[in-house]
Design a protein that fits this description.
Blueprint (H helix, E strand, L loop, with lengths): L19 H7 L3 E3 L8 H8 L4 E4 L4 H5 L4 E3 L4 H13 L1 H15 L4 H17 L1
Length: about 130
């Protein structure tokens, strides 16, 4: 509020899972500077919607998002600010990031996860 962003930034609080795609698809940018994640599902969900994503460069997130998101040091607010500004102010850059997000997210699906899990079970069972 002190920065005059009240009308431009939404702090939604809890959002039911089934409503998340609406938020991702209506967003100019998804920013997720998390300090710890087991997998990093929220950035992947945003990327699946083609939402340009900025997230943290720690824990498992870089492995999940690959080149489909901008990575930042979660402790470096200047770096995060610069990446947010670049993404929201440069439409061409934002579109390129959106395309990269969709390409990377294509590598993940629940069906693919299930098929690969079954393969592991079959390998273990056959031994």
């Amino acid at each position: 509020e002190s920065m005059g962003l009240r009308d431009r930034v939404v702090f939604a609080g809890y959002v039911p899972y089934e409503h998340l795609p609406y938020f991702y698809n209506c967003s100019t940018l998804f920013v997720y500077p998390s300090l710890y994640e087991g997998f990093g599902l929220p950035p992947l969900e945003a990327m699946t919607c083609g939402t340009p994503t900025i997230t943290t460069n720690v824990t498992s997130i870089p492995e999940v998002v690959g080149d489909g998101a901008l990575l930042t040091d979660p402790y470096d607010t200047d770096e995060l600010t610069e990446k947010i500004y670049k993404t929201i102010s440069d439409a061409e850059f934002r579109e390129q990031l959106s395309v990269k997000a969709l390409r990377r997210a294509y590598n993940f699906s629940w069906k693919k996860t299930a098929v690969e899990t079954i393969k592991v079970y079959e390998e273990v069972y056959d031994k």
